[in-house]
Structures are given as structure tokens and as C-alpha cells.
Amino acid sequence: MHVIDMGHDVYKANDKVAEKNKKKLDKYQVFSVNVMGAIGSGKTTLIEEAIRQLKDKYNIAVIAGDVVAEMDSSRFKKLDVPTIPVNTGKECHLDAKLVEKALDEIDLSNTDLLFIENVGNLICPVDFKLGEHLRVVIVSVTEGDDIILKHPMIFKTSDLAVINKVDIAHAVDVDAEKMRDDILSLKPNVPVILTSKHDWESLETWISFIELGVKEAQNR
Amino acid sequence: MHELSIACEIFEQVMATAKEHGATEVKHVTLQMGRLSHTNPEQLSFCFNVLANESIAKDADLIVEMIPPSLECECGYTGAVDEKKIRENCKFESELLAYAAVMECPVCGKPAQLTGGRELIIKSIEIETENQD
């Protein structure tokens, strides 16, 4: 019997590809946003709103991850932005290799902002970096106000947290402020934005946060 | 499924290393898993066994060693978390929540960066070869 030392870190193998993706994006001064969140939290809608407001100022592209269908990517295509649908087939998350492949199909020299919409899931995307500059987690009040403490690591590892659909919090008996407090108890100082697609001011906060990142990327 | 893709990666790496060393059988695969990684050891074992069913690793045992979280602080401290202190100070009863909440540096008490506890490492494999020298 022989013991062979391997020391192969499965997640680090993904991280290495993610680093490569990030370097490539940096080279073209592209600001990339990994949008994570549960099914139905409003990821697609919030990305659409940002595209509508920013597409005249910046060149935007989208990688739209989904298990099988292409509903989300067709919504982005309607907004006239280059969109690469990525079907994971059986996987519950995007990984760096899938993004690496998708990046080959994007004209990065003509891109300022890249949205990567992850598969709807609060668990698996946590372990897989993609090469993003900003990790965003979006939850909605309809998921219940215990959703945050049920999925701590996605909040712990995100750079921005969005609580969406706050206009219907009362109807679903949820306290959005409790959700904000729970996020801050896991990660103090993380920016938390409360949004509703029916409240323009809240969308403006979300969009200006993204625009700030684009401007920083262009000054790098 | 998360565990299936991870198990595929482990299986491919294990088989490549086993082949490289002229293995006739893989007896054990030892993994190190961070306590904060979102991987389930039982599901991972199940997926690995399904994948290895018709290979020289079909009877391999997947041994999982759990790795506790570790920290890095701006004061210069790097090392393990003070588990007892975290549990005493944290309002959360769940272990994962306690770890995921702010982790304080055991030396200066400031919130510190999590540096370990999320990894998944194929540490070693134990193999049989034809030449038992």
C-alpha cells in the first residue's frame, strides 16, 4: 500500500481560473458584477433597470446563467445589449470555467460593464468565484425575514446586499429592517440597499452604486 | 447538484494521480474540508462512489477531515479562531452562524478577516500497486 500526497484544492482550482478572468477584465477596464440570489428575488429585474438607465452612457454586456431555459437572456437581448446565455445543465451555480468560456464571446474592448447573473440559489454560488469585481446578493421580502440567517455565508462573502420588493413587505408580514439588521450582524459595514421596482429613488441608489464601480474601473 | 460536480473533479484528479503511480486499486481518498464550505460530506461520498463504480476506486473509502476556520488580523495575528470566545460572545446558537458572524482577533479583539475554513483539498490517496516494493 502506498500513500500519495496530493494537496489538490478543488476550490482553489476554480479560484485560479477566476483570477485569470479578472485579469482579463482588468486589462479592458471592464467592471464585472456577480449577481447572486434566490429564485424570484428580482435579479433579472434589477439588472434590467440598471441597463435601461446606464446603457446610453456605457457599453454593457450580460452573461445570463440559468439551469436550462433562456428566459432571462431573452429579456436582456430585448434591451439591445450583448447577452451570452450560459446553461449549466445540472449545476446550481456558475463557475469560473463557464465564465471564462462566455468571456470569449464578448467584445471586451467595447464593454465597460458586465453583469453576470448567477443561477438562482443562495448556497452553491458562495464557493465559486467567477472573476467578478463586485459580489452582490439580492433577496426579496417574499422569501421571509429569516432567509438571511438561514444562508449566512452568501452574505458574509458579498460586497453589497440588496433587499428587494420592500413595497410588499407588509403584505407578506416581513420586517425589511430586521433583514437589514441580520445582514449587518453577519457583516458589519456591508452596504445594504432596500429596493422596489415601484420606487424610483431606491432603484437610483442601486444604479448609482453600480455606476460608481464602472467609474472606478475606468480610472484604474 | 453541487456535490456531483465536486465529486467529478475529485474523481478525475484521483484517477490521474493513481494512474501516474501505477495503481491497481485505490483504497482510501483523504479529503480536508473547511467547516464553512458548502459541501456535504455524505452527499459527496455518495456521488464519488457512484462515479467510481466501475473503476479501480470502486471500493475506495472517502475519509473527510474537517478544517476549522482561521483568521488574519491587521494587528499581525494569523491563526485559528478562538472558538470558545466566539461561542460565548455570539448571539447565534448555530455553529455556522457563529462562525459566519463577525470573527474577532483573539489577540487585539478587532474584527478579523477569514482566511481559512472554506477549502476542499484532496490531501492524499492510498493505493495498491502490482510491485509492492
UniProtKB/TrEMBL annotation, chain A:
Gene3D superfamilies: P-loop containing nucleotide triphosphate hydrolases. Residues 29-167 form the AAA+ ATPase domain. GO terms for biological process: protein maturation. Pfam families: cobW. InterPro entries: AAA+_ATPase, CobW/HypB/UreG_nucleotide-bd, Hyd_mat_HypB, P-loop_NTPase. GO terms for molecular function: GTP binding; GTPase activity; nickel cation binding; zinc ion binding. SMART domains: AAA. The keyword Translocase does not apply. Keywords: GTP-binding, Hydrolase, Metal-binding, Nickel, Nucleotide-binding, Zinc. Belongs to the SIMIBI class G3E GTPase family. HypB/HupM subfamily. This is [NiFe] hydrogenase nickel incorporation-associated protein HypB.
UniProtKB/TrEMBL annotation, chain B:
It holds the Pfam family HypA. InterPro entries: Hydgase_Ni_incorp_HypA/HybF_CS, HypA/HybF. One of its GO terms (molecular function) is zinc ion binding. The keyword Zinc applies. Transmembrane segments: none annotated. One of its GO terms (biological process) is protein maturation. Ni(2+) binds at H2. HAMAP family: HypA_HybF. Involved in the maturation of [NiFe] hydrogenases. Required for nickel insertion into the metal center of the hydrogenase. PANTHER family: HYDROGENASE MATURATION FACTOR HYPA (PTHR34535). This is Hydrogenase maturation factor HypA. It comes from Methanosarcina barkeri CM1. The gene is hypA.
